[in-house]
Prior knowledge:
The chain is of the alpha/beta class. Among the domains are: 59 residues, no CATH class; 118 residues, no CATH class; 126 residues, no CATH class. The chain is 27% helix and 19% strand. The strands form 6 sheets. It has a 17-stranded mixed beta sheet. The longest helix is centred in the N-terminal third of the chain and has 28 residues. The chain is flat, with a radius of gyration of 34 Å. The two termini are 60 Å apart.
Amino acid sequence: xxxxxxxxxxxxxxxxxxxxxxxxxxxxxxxxxxxxxxxxxxxxxxxxxxxxxxxxxxxxxxxxxxxxxxxxxxxxxxxxxxxxxxxxxxxxxxxxxxxxxxxxxxxxxxxxxxxxxxxxxxxxxxxxxxxxxxxxxxxxxxxxxxxxxxxxxxxxxxxxxxxxxxxxxxxxxxxxxxxxxxxxxxxxxxxxxxxxxxxxxxxxxxxxxxxxxxxxxxxxxxxxxxxxxxxxxxxxxxxxxxxxxxxxxxxxxxxxxxxxxxxxxxxxxxxxxxxxxxxxxxxxxxxxxxxxxxxxxxxxxxxxxxxxxxxxxxxxxxxxxxxxxxxxxxxxxxxxxxxxxxxxxxxxxxxxxxxxxxxxxxxxxxxxxxxxxxxxxxxxxxxxxxxxxxxxxxxxxxxxxxxxxxxxxxxxxxxxxxxxxxxxxxxxxxxxxxxxxxxxxxxxxxxxxxxxxxxxxxxxxxxxxxxxxxxxxxxxxxxxxxxxxxxxxxxxxxxxxxxxxxxxxxxxxxxxxxxxxxxxxxxxxxxxxxxxxxxxxxxxxxxxxxxxxxxxxxxxxxxxxxxxxxxxxxxxxxxxxxxxxxxxxxxxxxxxxxxxxxxxxxxxxx
Length: 606
């Protein structure tokens, strides 16, 4: 009788299992344990040990069968491989030296030992074994890891401090067989000597290395360091396949008598320093002409990231006051597609304006600027922070959409398609990090980047609302206002004054529950009997964001209902009607929508 023919009765099945295993043990073990056998105790013991060996072997098979019908054991190999890949990011292998002995934690590899299916899946997925944390794996595992990666390129993450702690030579890990297959190397260090030692080993990867990241902790090595070119550790020009370079805390020698430091096929470059102090030797930065020459030698560069790293402006001391000497003509990085700039210290910000006025970025590039960690409110003029907008010729490449949050300005140079008009109601690009008492934390994925037509984004806690003359308002067709931006405008006059030049805006998106002052401004009429604010406005998009409004519920509804209906009626009387009203479903139960004149204004919910 097959298993499929057996009706499930737990008590009956348990008894059948008991009987079967009892008979099996009796036949295989008890029969060998009797003293009636004449083969002798020694042979009996060996026979019983053999039976135990087989029992242990097939017990594992039994567990495999049990696991095969469990939810986790039945996951497809593709899903398991994805889970393992995600686990690698948050659970890396690491090692620590305690009492002179190195102890290893295999990290994510431990979950591959849960069951045989998981282990087989991991072993049959070469991509899982390409990332090698040096030297955080036991040395005897390296040949196995390399074999498991198949023919795929390797990614080495080198922690130089652990090499010193374990008294292990770099050459044991950064050997020729490994480096010849490596396409990515990340070196994290707090010692220039250790960094140079690791980089000297990279010569074996000249033909394969595509990405190099060097992160030197300047807090532990008394400041930034120059990696000397003459010791052979930093001649990157000999790496023809290299496409991405990121340097933090250590830099090439920018001396004009030396060759330019990067291969001309580079597509991504990051230059970063954690902090610049007032009395700091700044020769780790090139002067503006040398920086221009370095960028000009990179015709394929598409992404540039600068963190507290701007070229040094040439100075003229002949005049009564020190004067910056501009480049003979601004350098135009025509091929650049993305620029990311971060200033976390005021000393670096002092050269911000010079960079923007002498190095031009294509209007089709995505530009993201973070000035949030410094107070520039005392600088003159503070509007320098908005100079990236002024660098775009608004007549040739007009700004068409703008998003304003409490500290962020985003400008897009193409209108969004209609299906994107109702996108999210708030941008949380930057927000306070209260648990750690830090001034801000950064979450860039919410910025509206336009990688086709270009977009620019600036974050500054010093405020921009008093410098509206430096924003490209005249050409705007759409404005998106987040809930946290609305309190920055004081009364209807504040709105009308700030957006006086934005007369072409046709679409306005904002948080309805916090919009009393904005609605008051929208119903203002000037002497010509035309709307004072956004006279061409025809579309309103209303979001909820109720959390940003602290007030009484019923009175909130009443005041907003009267204000909105007044706006619609006033605009209709001025021959400038609001034709479309898009409302979030969170506000669909409010009664005001039933009082909107559908003959002139359509109402849709999203």
